[in-house]
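Morning!

As promised:
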Amino acid sequence: MRVTQEQMRENRHRILSEASRLFREKGFDAVGIAEVMKAAGLTHGGFYGHFASKEELMAHAIAQATTEVSGRCDDPQTLVAKYLSPAHRDNVADGCPMAALAADVRHRPPATRSAMSVGIRSQIDGLARALPDDVTADRRREAIGTYAAMLGALILARAVDEPTLSDEILSETRAWMATAP
Amino acid sequence: MRVTQEQMRENRHRILSEASRLFREKGFDAVGIAEVMKAAGLTHGGFYGHFASKEELMAHAIAQATTEVSGRCDDPQTLVAKYLSPAHRDNVADGCPMAALAADVRHRPPATRSAMSVGIRSQIDGLARALPDDVTADRRREAIGTYAAMLGALILARAVDEPTLSDEILSETRAWMATAP
DNA sequence: AGTTTAATATGATCGCGGTCATATTTGTGT
DNA sequence: ACACAAATATGACCGCGATCATATTAAACT
């Protein structure tokens, strides 16, 4: 059945939101169109009225997740603390889209990779802008190193089976980053 | 046709080797049993004579890749340089299995996750053992932080589309790690 | 109000990949 | 040598998921 233009925009937005969450949670391959549409309260058939393909959805979902996450601004200190917290580790669906999907985009078509690339660049730029200018001579270097360490630690903490080791990776990386810069 | 027991051991080993390379290169989902067996010079049917399931193959492939990579010993200095080199970034199939697959094991059954967990723990332990004891009070902390930063930077460098940014992530992370500890 | 058209629902198609049944060939032990 | 068993080859089955064709319903416009 037909719906309002307003309704359609809302539907599209809900599709993107749910896709963004599901992709982060389960990975691109494990999530089907039907699952995304059902999560958005629709049926699978209508999907192609909104997007040309699953691949297009992946690209847009990455972009949406990135802007969504970029909105949550903090000073670098607390940003690192939140990023490397058990809460963030355990909440993949609402967490950093790069930690959840960056390793995967290697296997995706150019549009998806490009969306991720844009997101990563903007995250680095944002972090560099947020850093105080007295920490080190090169704020961009500091931003890249900090971001890499955070992302790597989160991925490792999520990959590991043993809770003790997982917690240790988070806390020790946080401590290590506090001493170094 | 039947083959020598020796031949069978070789076949199993080749299946594992090719699986390990292919999984790293393309990811678990994108590689099928048939492709692995063909790469090993066999046909898909014989697979279940060697492994009970694809999942079992994934777990063993991770273990094999980990021991294989652990054999390449260097002092920490050159290890970091090699790890964060464009050569390593561009050679995923023979590179660090954690950088290639750690983010993926979140979606795999326990046996696969466990194999990855064991690998990560051994990598951290090995790195801690290799570190000189005068760098800092806590070698384990140093090892965890260093490993997280390396892994994160490599994943980001591989995810990014723009070669300039990718190179920058590698070199700046290397420089950042040299200043910090 | 009536006609048109757009958004979604229903159902079908098609290919792919994991798994298994059966056949075939050849090493292994007597 | 012979019988047996094991490793692999061939081919089929099965379910799943992306995509598309058609139907249906209600908004949009005159």
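Residues 1-3, 5, 7-8, 11, 42-46, 49-50 of chain B lie near DNA strand D (CB under 10 Å from a C1').

Hope this helps with the figure draft.
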